[in-house]
């Protein structure tokens, strides 16, 4: 009886340890999967947001990355609708978008995530439109031939998982970043 009890305790301890290890591995897998998905959504979404502002595309493709309620209240996107877009006078051919994730947290079973990241665009390729040269010269004087610099920033984002896909629900500018 003594040996049977020891055998049962030995097996129970090993099964418990195995269950704990498997649980930790499962949590790590889902956390990593969410982190990768969130990084891609932020990277591609912020690049699409910048492209929408600089190249003046319709913001319809933004709904793939951002919640509709956020698109309607975003200050950067609002400039394209109100006519105060500083890139409207320029023909933008490309830009170098960079995003570095600083922090992200989401429990594997949760549908809300928080992240902090830094967005910069160190280079914008483009020239002033010939029809807008005089207006650009009046606004920017020296260096009016080239597009103005993008104001980079450090952001805090809240993301929600809707229908199996992450969307940015809110972005808060924590600090402006100069190149």
Q: Care to describe what's here?
A:
The protein has 179 residues and is α+β, with helices and mostly antiparallel strands. Helix content is 42%, strand content 32%. Strands 1-2-3-4 form a four-stranded antiparallel beta sheet. A hairpin with a 2-residue loop joins strand 3 (152-162) and strand 4. The termini are far apart.
Name the features:
alpha+beta; 4 helices; 4 strands; elongated; 4-stranded antiparallel beta sheet; 179 residues; single chain
Note poorly predicted spans: none
Structural class: alpha+beta
What fraction of the residues are assigned to beta strands by DSSP?
25-35%
Q: How helix-rich are the residues, as a percent range?
A: 40-55%
- Give the strand order, joined by hyphens, for the main sheet: 1-2-3-4
Radius of gyration equals 24 Å
Mean pLDDT: 88
Whole-Å distance between the termini? 74 Å
* Structure annotation, total helices: 4
Count every beta strand, where a strand is a DSSP E run of 2 or more residues. 4
Brief digest:
The protein has 179 residues and is of the alpha+beta class.
Question: Topology of this protein?
Answer:
Elements: H1 2-55, H2 68-73, H3 75-82, E1 90-105, E2 112-128, H4 133-140, E3 152-162, E4 165-177
Antiparallel strand pairs: 1-2, 2-3, 3-4
């Amino acid at each position: 009886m003594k040996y049977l009890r020891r055998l049962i305790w030995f097996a129970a301890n090993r099964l418990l340890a195995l269950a704990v290890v498997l649980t930790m591995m499962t949590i790590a897998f889902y956390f990593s999967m969410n982190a990768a998905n969130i990084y891609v959504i932020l990277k591609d979404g912020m690049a699409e947001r910048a492209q929408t502002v600089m190249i003046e595309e319709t913001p319809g493709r933004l709904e793939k990355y951002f919640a509709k309620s956020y698109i309607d209240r975003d200050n950067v996107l609002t400039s394209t609708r109100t006519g105060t877009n500083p890139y409207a006078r320029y023909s933008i051919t490309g830009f170098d978008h960079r995003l570095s994730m600083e922090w992200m947290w989401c429990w594997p079973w949760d549908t809300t995530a928080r992240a902090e990241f830094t967005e910069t665009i160190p280079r914008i390729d483009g020239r002033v439109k010939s029809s807008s040269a005089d207006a650009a010269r009046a606004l920017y004087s020296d260096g009016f031939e080239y597009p103005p610099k993008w104001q980079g920033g450090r952001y805090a984002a809240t993301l929600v998982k809707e229908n199996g896909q992450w969307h940015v629900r809110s972005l808060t500018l924590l600090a402006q970043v100069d190149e």
